[in-house]
Amino acid sequence: MLNMNPAIGWLVLIIILLVIEIATLGLTTIWFAGGATAAFLSTFFGAGPVIQWMLFLVLSLAFLLLTRPMAVRYMKNNQVSTNADSLVGKTVVVSEKIDNLAQSGKVNIADIEWMARSTDDLKIIPAGRKVKICSIEGVKLIVEEIKEEN
After folding, report:
1. Is residue 1 part of a domain?
2. Residue 53 belongs to some domain of the structure
3. What spatial distance separates the first Cα and last Cα of the chain, rounded to whole Å?
4. Structural domain includes residue 32
5. How many domains does the chain divide into?
6. What is the dihedral of CA 66, 68, 74, 80, to 10 degrees?
7. Parallel, antiparallel, or unpaired: how do β-strands 130-137 and 140-145 relate?
8. Does the keyword Membrane apply (predicted)?
9. Interaxial angle between packed helices 49-77 and 29-42, expressed in degrees from 0 to 180 and rounded to the nearest 10
């Protein structure tokens, strides 16, 4: 086992790293798979173990630090923004009492009724109160009551 061809060891590492990347889609292990590929190829040119490990470490870190930010930015640009995203931050009026524990609560926005839940499970927000939309989870608006100053 200790006399295993280093090319096979690098190939196994590449496969493991690619499987992890496919399972997580975190854009992390893919760069190490690139470094392992360079080390794998270097075995065919007679590179020793020290050179192989140096190639693996230096190229993996270079790929990670130099190309990951661009890849993440590219992936975020491909996210489709919806009209619902524009609701976050808006102020609306509660049309039906919001009570997370009772699974009730509604707000109306442009004649469309939305289910609403409070950011605080213990907070009950009566109908007629103004709330700010903090986020959207599925088809529910997550809101927080706006304290009116007297």
Report:
1. no
2. yes
3. 79
4. yes
5. 2
6. -160
7. antiparallel
8. yes
9. 150
Q: Which domain holds residue 59?
A: 6-77
Partners of 91 in beta bridges: 132
- Amino acid type, 130: K
CA atoms within 13 A on the CB side of 22: 6
CA atoms within 13 Å, Cβ hemisphere of 56: 24
| DSSP conformational letter for 120 | S
User: Which residue's entry shows tokens 């399972």?
Assistant: 23
For residues 110-141, b (16+ Cβ closer than 10 Å) or e, as one string?
A: eeeebbbbbeeeeeebeeebebebeeeeeeeb
87 lies in the same domain as 72: no
Contact indicator for 130, 93 with CB cutoff of 8 Å: yes
pTM to 2 decimal places: 0.50
DSSP letter string over 1-29? -TT--HHHHHHHHHHHHHHHHHHH--SSH
